[in-house]
Amino acid sequence: MALPETVAGPRRPATPPETAVTRRPRRRGGRAGYWLYLLPGAVLFVLVIGAPLMGTVYFSLTKWSGVGDPTFIGLDNYRHLLEDEVFWTSFRNTLAMIVAMVVVPTLVGLVLAAVLFDVVGRRFRPRTAAALRAAFYLPQVLPVVVAGIVWGWILRPDGAFNGLLDAVGLGALRHDWLGDPKTALPSVMAVMIWVQIGYPVVVFMAALQRVDPELYEAAEVDGAGWFHRFRAITLAQIRPETFVVALTCTIAALKVFGPVFALTRGGPENATNVPSYFAYYTFFKKLQVGYGSAISTVLTLIIIVVAVVFIWMQNRSERQDRGV
Amino acid sequence: MAVTLTPAGSTARRPRPARDRHHRGVSRWVVLALVTLGALVMLVPFAFMLLNAFKSPGDYSTGGPLSWPSEFYTKGLRTYWSEVDFPLKLWNSTLIAGSVAVLGVVVSLLNAYALGIGRVRGRLWIVGLFLLANMLPQEALIYPLYDAAKQVGLYNTRLAVIIIFTVIQSAFGTYLLASVLSTFPRSLLEAAALDGASRWTVLWRVVFPNLRPTLAVLLIFFFIWTWNEFLIPLVMLIDNSTQTIPVALASLQGDRLMDAPTTNAGSLISLVPAILFFLIFQRTLARGITAGAEK
User: Which GO BP terms, alphabetically (chain B) (predicted)?
Assistant: First the structure.
């Protein structure tokens, strides 16, 4: 949610504070004393994140049902994974989730935020813009599983969506939206767009408040139209936030679990299966702990690579900005 | 924060002729209508849910999902309320999310104090580690945690979930607070040190009061995030006496096919607390999200 650069950025010139330290009277304990404050957090971190992560990587090299002792089998699980149709399907579906949770919300969010901020906020009352923003943001604060259950009912054969189609005279389109492998994935994608859209809207609207209004005025005096200003000023000015939104949403798309659990349980015929649900199912329903661990490990590696690439791209684009 | 700038800006600009033309234009009304339509579409699922939460099953099967309820039927709500023992679920969710929020903020603050103010050696790597931990899929931790919880007798306890989420949330909190504290005014710290204040005193008398608004935002975020969590509570809490609100609804949905009015009644009850938080904390939340994204 926060800019990765913020940590490194302001701290990089580490020399001035260093000299300040030497001048300070409280030199006795040096900086070592601060380690004590890190101790509780570090112990908890190792117990709850470090050790379990290592455990998962180790289990991924074993065959284990969760009872008795794991049998070490080397890389067999990973070999098996490469030939597993469901594994590839689940990652293909992740791409669909990226479209539904990153690409569409970011693009629509940019336009919506600009319109709400620029047109509604300025030419009507800001309060109107805030109320509309709240409507878009509401799904973001709800337990996503509960929202998923409501949507699951809406898209059921006897649910509200088919009822709506009937009511507007499109009854011929009635369908078992989540039960048909052809429509299940697009339906889940639609729900995810609904869930996700509010996040970019809120972040981008806040980012726009940072932009100097004089830029827009100058552009308007020069005769630039709304779309031109949107492209030349808005997009350029809020690029850092766009990076953050794209990164956090991509990670969320790679990890998505709750909505799939509530809507389809990965079905029908794996049409909506995703890696995290696939891993959960393998752990707790098929009791193949080793194989589930291999899925989780691959997912973890992909997430780390994506995050590193994003942060690298962001740093590079910032350096270019400074160079210009 | 620049939140208050908008109204002042728009009034100041109003006299300009160029603006005035736009102000009277039809296009802005078209835009407003389109955006409002979009916002209404976002709210349609809630309307569907409300409409059907107060309908009897018989009413639903004859009238369908869009009909107006023929009577104000509250038995579905009452059945769900008592069948899942909703007050207990509410307490479980509140206890877990509340404990995690408080403990998570405390752990984040202690970590960030060492990293942001103490500037301990290797802090960039440590902060990077916390950031990475925040991105990990929970599937990469869940089985060893489940296994360990069973061995130490914490399986199916709320304490296990509290401990786990305290650490997961504080990974984000540490990252955020460390970057906030790295810009903390050194003069304040030095003044306190000259007065002979110990590190512990500086933390609670100087750093903590200055950081209070940020900590409040973090507290609310931790609470809502934990409240909405699903996978770990689903795996760890298998009992009616320990489950949280989302897990209770999901497991009832999984057990047998719930009829539509009960599904809607259960969802409505389960969403009410979250909607209340949203209304109460709307401003703080909007500000907090930007605090996260700001440079």
Answer: transmembrane transport
Q: What is the number of alpha carbons within 13 Å of residue A311 lying toward its C-beta?
A: 19
The neighbour count for residue A221, using CB atoms within 10 Å, is: 9
Q: Is residue A22 part of a domain?
A: no
ipTM of the complex: 0.83
Inter-chain touch B167–A44, beta carbons under 8 Å: yes
Contact B227 A143 (CB under 8 A): yes
Q: CA geometry: angle at B70 spanning B69 and B71, to 5°?
A: 90
Question: What domains does chain B contain, in order, with CATH numbers?
Answer: 80-293 (1.10.3720.10)
Asked if A262 lies within 8 A of B253 by C-beta distance, the reply is yes
pLDDT in tens, A263-272: 999 889 899 9
Tokens of B261: 């009015």
Residues of chain B in contact with residue A56, where contact means CB-CB under 8 angstroms, are: 140-141, 143-144
Number of domains making up chain A: 1
Residue of A26, A139, A244 lying closest to B193 (CB–CB): A26
Tokens read off for A134: 């709240």
Segment B124-140, tens digit of pLDDT = 889 889 988 889 999 99
Is A84 a domain residue?
yes
Q: Establish, for the pair of chains A and B, how many residue pairs have beta carbons separated by less than 8 Å.
A: 341
The domain in which residue A146 lies consists of: 79-323
Asked if the structure places residue A47 within a domain, the reply is: no
Taking the CA of residue B159 and the nearest CA in chain A, the distance in Å comes to 13
Q: Give this prediction's pTM.
A: 0.85
Which amino acid does the sequence have at A129? A
What is the residue whose two structure tokens read 């780390």? A304
Are A52 and B145 a contacting pair at CB < 8 A?
Answer: yes
- Answer whether A296 sits within 8 Å of B140, measured CB to CB: yes
To the nearest whole Å, the CA of B42 is away from the closest chain A CA by 6
Grouping H, G, I as helix, E, B as strand and the rest as coil, residue A71 is strand
Q: Which residues of chain A lie closer than 8 angstroms to B228, CB-CB?
A: 141-145
Q: What CATH number has the domain bearing residue A218? A: 1.10.3720.10
The answer to the question of residue A106 being in a domain is yes
Q: How many CB atoms lie within 10 A of CB B193?
A: 17
